[in-house]
């Protein structure tokens, strides 16, 4: 076990004003949240509007044990509400109509705007009416593939207002990925933009969408209409000539400009009252086998959880300015750019660009410009900024910061300490928030001003979350130790099912350890009861915060007609956290050459997305297989890092393969 790390006490100034200000208070509240969830969450529910209340005895109901029947999770059954109403109308009625909901900062520093709660409500109503005019009704799925512009939250909330289910695909996925997802969720409409700038790179989003609609067509699903935001043409400061010759492909009768549709649309729209367990949105995530899963989140529980985690984990107070750098296309963006902040009437920043444009100090210039109080980003971003040293942040006043968040992967102590010292000046609390697309919001996290911090540990469970560690046989690991990270009871914000495939939901998350939700991560618990998430225990890997499965990449590689077999493993990477290392066996009598390597890279980019591009593709005349034909991946992982300590290989059908693979490593 590693030596005891240093513990960092929260700044007393932060503690004195925090919602939860001592660890004793945390433990007390935590106990209440586990023993009487209906009391804990009932208090949070009180701040929201319920068209119909639920009876206290129905507040929460579940079955986590597959041997006792289907897995089911229900919160506040019988209640009806509308999330959009709670986020917008309620805040406007409470006198926050003129408060800023979003400061929008474009890719170029001269491009910015803002939106008040009142204006946001009007725009959402207008777009809700547009969707209705296109025949979208409660329960229909709406696909969204958009850059980080203000139309993105408007589109999401318009869906929520009329009870349509938004299904956002991060606008870095390829057309194939988008087409497959639209087919899986049977999306009627696709909302996108003509294009977007990322740094100096122009992304042709509508072109990708056209190819995706075609892909869906091939798969037998027709996307009826596509609504397009004219983003490139309306705003390109600094690029006045850069977009010359930019073309947005168009299909009459299927494609519609956002601004044309909005022009005569009424700025009022009565909300659709939704049952507590009606679907709110779905979001695809990779599975260790098979195609991506449509993780489904529902209405009431998600609202409570997004609201509570946002407020408490970031200690958000009126007049604070919150900034989460995540793209809205990920769960972090759904919960902490959209639903959590708006449920609290908060002011946030939405940033379209990258940390490196026009210069490496862009993040800090934005923190300074908007006087950001809570900043939330990913370790991979920190590592890539850190390498430019301390000078870029020193150019700016970062004195407004109180809380610094981290999410997406374990944060290495070096990045943690840099964040703490150089960005936070040792006065900010760092919240290393562990969660998943499936968990909807933070499940293990420190609380600012409250939890003593340890670099690299997500520390303690959030309220209502009951983590446990299990060994391979399913026995509980008590006290200090390591094991599979599972949860023993549901919290309001967890996923309810895999869209259209409840069986897959049950087998993926509930079959390995009956009675528990299995995260797929491993974790260690130290003597203080703090959790240290160690990473995936399945064949999944995390490249710059993007979760993907090795099998997903392998199946793309083997699509190439010159490839006979492929095996992919994860290798540690200094910036990305992990990267893909691929072993390729060409067809018999075919050779392995540079042409094949570059074609394979292109194939992965096209089929999955640019972020999935492998770092290394090496020739494997054969793969290390057991006599039963199972690839010994631990051996491949050793070869990837050039570690000769491969352990026992006597069960391999052909041990000499290992030596050959070491010899074939590219430099
Ligand atoms: C996986 C979930 C959570 C939003 C972004 C990713 C890893 C996430 C942490 C953290 C250690 C973390 C886990 C998890 N992960 N946050 N603070 N410490 N690991 O969502 O794509 O569903 O990925 O990301 O491995 O299972 P996702």
From TrEMBL:
Root EC class: ligase
GO-annotated biological processes: acetyl-CoA biosynthetic process from acetate
Gene3D superfamilies, sorted: 3.30.300.30, N-terminal domain of ligase-like (3.40.50.12780)
Domain AMP-dependent synthetase/ligase: 94-496
GO molecular function: acetate-CoA ligase activity; AMP binding; ATP binding
EC number in record: 6.2.1.1
CDD domains: ACS
Record bears the keyword Phosphoprotein: no
Annotated Acetyl-coenzyme A synthetase N-terminal domain residues: 26-86
Catalytic activity: acetate + ATP + CoA = acetyl-CoA + AMP + diphosphate
Family the UniProt entry places it in: Belongs to the ATP-dependent AMP-binding enzyme family.
Record protein name field: Acetyl-coenzyme A synthetase
Organism: Corethrella appendiculata
Lineage: Eukaryota, Metazoa, Ecdysozoa, Arthropoda, Hexapoda
